[in-house]
Amino acid sequence: MKPTLKTLLAAVAGATFLTAGMAQANERLLIGSTSSSSSHYGYFVAVNQIINSQVEGVSASVAETGATVDNLRRLGRNQIDMGLVTTNTGYHAYAGQEDFDGRPVDSRLLWVYTVAPQNVVMRQDAGVSTLEELEGVRFNPGITGSATEKTTEAVMRTLGISPDYVRGSTTDIVDAMKDGRVMGSAKSGVGNKLDGSTMDIATFTPISVISLTDEQADTLRAEMPDVAIVDVPEGAGEGIPAYTTWAFGVAVHAHPDLDEETAYQIVKAVMENPEPQANAFSAVRDEDLAQMTLEVGTVPLHAGAARYFEEQGLEIPEALRPVE
After folding, report:
1. According to the model, what pLDDT value does residue 82 have?
2. pTM to 2 decimal places
3. How many whole angstroms separate alpha carbon 226 and alpha carbon 86?
């Protein structure tokens, strides 16, 4: 049976049982997540528990889904009320681009809970210290079929750089970089740290991470609004200095029809109860989710979310201002 979403179950006041003042609406929400084998699924279970314990009058449940694209399509069909959406694909859906060309999906940003910097990792003996020097170099843009692969290729096209792309799985590329058949790879970071496969490569051969120049960063800001530009501090890996790169976030988007007060109370509860989220998904520990949302979000905020952030004295960027 097709789920009915954003259903209001009015607690009808029967004359012999309840007075009208005792009746209270209970809003039922369905949250689209991802595969139950993913650590992100655990994050959404924690969020669900926060909503059910902290937001009065709302009953939420989590659905296992196919993640971003599936969730966006479910939002478009009114089959879920909220869901996991990566910020780059969320922008494509909102703008009717890429996989959503001619079929835009209208959604609203609630918050971003983690950011994935896209790290250009090179063997030091490649002699590559700038992105321009990747021209013609054997380079993996990201594992085959990944968001990293697609985004890296778009970044390189935008910057006018043409590496010699080598495709493969994570295992393929790690082995190829270790033995020098591939000189570099784009890999998603884990917060401000290099991922495990990159650290594995670093145990075999010295590595470096290539930074965007100020000019390149400005070009991407102007021409690729689906990505964020982030500054990663020193220490992403041993001996790795601070650098600038592109990134996308993992966010929670909502259906535009989600009640403003409900959205406000949900965002408030999530922002003010960080510990259960950190216990379920360690990457959010000690992160400022509100600031992250305003820096990395790519579609307009839900009016309820914007109200909460403004109450905290935060300035909403023009691109994220509610459109209602």
Report:
1. 98
2. 0.77
3. 10
